[in-house]
Amino acid sequence: MFPEPAQPEYFLEIFPRDAFPRFGWTNRPAELPAATWTTETTHRDGQQGGLPLTAEQSLQIYNLLCRFTGDSGAIRQAEFFAYRPSDRAALEGALERYRSGAPIEPTTWIRAAVKDVELIRQLGVKETGMLASASDYHTFHKFKPGGRGQAAAAYLDAVRMTVDAGIRPRIHLEDATRASTDFILPFIEAVQQSTAPYGEALRPKIRVCDTMGLGLPYDDVELPRSVPRMIRLLREAGIRSEELEFHPHNDTGLVVANCLAAVRAGCAVINGTSLGKGERTGNAPLEQVLLHLIGMGYFAAEQPDFTALNDLAALYAGMGEPIPPKYPLYGRDAHRTRAGVHADGLNKFWWMYAPFNVPALIGRPLEVSITKDSGTAGLVFLIKQHLGIELAKDHPEITALYEWVTAEFDAGRQTAIEWEEIAPHLTLTVPA
Q1: Whole-prediction pTM value?
Q2: For domain 37-318, is the CATH number 3.20.20.70?
């Protein structure tokens, strides 16, 4: 015997009708930061990963991200290259907008080298990222003759020059998930000692980079691969939550899980790109991370506008860099079903096959494409969606359409049938 409830159990506390799914904590992690946010690297890592950015396109992206962020504080900073004239023009344009009230602070990214610090001294930025490769894969093979001591000395010279210029350093520990803590901890201590005389305003930030996507979101694996253990180690070394950033890549498919593990362990800031653009398999997709941070209870007062990213997806497509059709949330097919049983579910109770209120929260429709497996339910859904007319499965119009669809696939058709092909076969009129 099964207990029969008076009303269906929808678990509305964790799957609310008007919000993204919530975390139903059994025990809220004690190390969760009081606040979290993200920082953006589309103009650096996204460009490095293949986005062909002109200065104008860079500013279009910046403007869209500001629109997405609004007053929520979801994205607080964006980093720019400063090596080419077009990058500097984009940076200058973003700085002008920021001084006029735009919500995202532009920063730069440089190598931790004296000549790069010279480049940014007069650009007007208050903070810069500094590449400090941390693993022996880098320190022994990037430098001549190579080694940890030589690498650290070069990085520290650049850090001292940066704070002398009144610019806050953000140390990017490249390849941290393959790096020895015997290098990371003494190096961070040396950075803190070098910057201490300059006061709170120039306290360094530390970015933990999972450069090859090798981090794991688990406590019960060894360092350096354990993301939560690495974050806790740095917190114990005196780095505040708000001074810690996590910058992962998605080479092994764990990028969002690793971001959430970092936050749960006490890291307040996630660095990535909106819609996941970046080198190789891409950076952390900030919109997906933010969806889950909202689920954790952050951004309760003001949320980012997820509908704005539809325009960003369109911009990328216009640049010849469209996001994949099945990309989560914003891909062309992200909310499209081709299965008849799913279409039937959408007709009967659309929440059955929607993870949340997709049309309201991200401005995307729930869609059906017709295949040989769609049955009559897909046709019923499309007619109701486009014409506002609800027909029974055995309606003559549905029967005739289904016979035409079946004939198409019986003749060898392999591609789905979309509404644009179906509409001319209809004889229905739209009710006034």
Answers
A1: 0.94
A2: yes
